[in-house]
Amino acid sequence: MNNETKNVFPENFMWGGATAANQYEGAWNVDGKKASTSDMMTGGSHAVPRRVTRTTEEGVHYPSHEAVDFYHRYKEDIRLFAEMGFKSYRMSIAWSRIFPNGDELQPNETGLQFYDRVFSELKKYNIEPIVTISHYEAPFGLTMKFNAWASREMIDCYVRYCEAIFTRYTDVVKYWITFNEINSLIVPAGAYLAGALLVDDSGVFNSTAVDSTQMRFQALHHQFVASAKAVKLAHEINPDFKLGCMINYSHGYGSTCKPEDMLLALRMDQVNNMLCGDVQVRGEYPDFAKRYFEEKGIEIRVEAEDAETLKQGCVDFYSFSYYKSHVVGTRPEGDETQGNVFGGFKNPYLKATDWGWQIDPVGLRYVLNHVYDRYRIPMMVVENGLGAVDTVEEDGTINDTYRIEFLRAHIEQMREAVRDGVNLIAYTSWGCIDIVSASTGEMSKRYGFIYVDKDNDGNGTLKRSKKNSFYWYQKVIETNGADLI
Questions:
Q1: What are the start-end ranges of the E strands in 299-420?
Q2: What domains can you pick out in the chain, each with its CATH number?
Q3: Catalytic residues
């Protein structure tokens, strides 16, 4: 095979975009839906943390309540996705739209009908849905009832939800992701976001009342079991279903070639990334977890059947988000950088976004090779993009060349990874249309190819406009990644 042939993405490569229901749909209490955990999060900013309230407060802005109103504008948005040439669309289903409190025995029919319409619209344009079952939200009723994923009771609620959507959409959805960025639960910032665990009286969403490494890893174990049960159930309902994990890939380089720094980078990769991947892909906890749990004083409560459940529920593909990399090791104080839950130190060889996330396209090629060498199953990059402040010019144009440059560089490295032999089957750029930021609640942190007229305070017409990146990505898809200019 010559280099020219190797340089082309597979003919059936699933180019597309990605969103999450809680950041996109709105209609938070419409047609039987009740509050999700994200619906109880106030607005915030890079400097001011979001709060979680136990009840909705008068005069307080909750960004997800309207979001950008995909619930009423899905036809317009999907038409725009089709115009770009999307082959796939990664979306999530709002759990509390199907089971409003989370513990009902029967699903909300009106909620199911909404996704009937969405999937029908996608099918009209031959866009393959890639559906995330739980994307940083859960019915808030379950958080208040038994602290959500801290309780084993959550597993049955989740499996009942899965059975409802697997059965309903068996003929229209093939690809399912059980949990978004499941490994985010291992750090405090993911306790509420990924685990739906109760917050303390301050209301700051990344500070739980009884936060502990023990609680978060216990909640994570419950998600592992729930995911495995969902995989087994899905394959029984439809053998053609493909189920995947989704990892928030935290890529860290050793700060020096000092052996201790390199060992620390290895340990962080194991705990932050590979632990969750190993359980979901290989069906068992990795050997290094035993020492980590002992050193952290973690004692996970397991049932006798859990080991067999995990073995029977291995996923079919590996998907992950990739936005940035960081450095780990001994560095001067004040040299820290953040990004998508996990942080580290700044890399002097890399530039950063306005939000301080290190831009590292080559790191994506490294991660693709690293993970594929370990698991040897199909891979998807289901989140990747640049959050930036976009300016609408007087003539209405949005010249987001910085976004094009970011995406071009990352797709180039994906192409190199395919040439390296990685079985990459999909790429869905994050926030293909402007949506609410999960971490800050802002609208000004925009990722989309499509601009939405709305500001951080919830003001705006919600009018959709095409950015220059819209036309660029259209060309990328049309040429199957060959033309990135």
A1: 317-321, 325-328, 336-337, 344-345, 379-383
A2: 3-478 (3.20.20.80)
A3: 181, 383
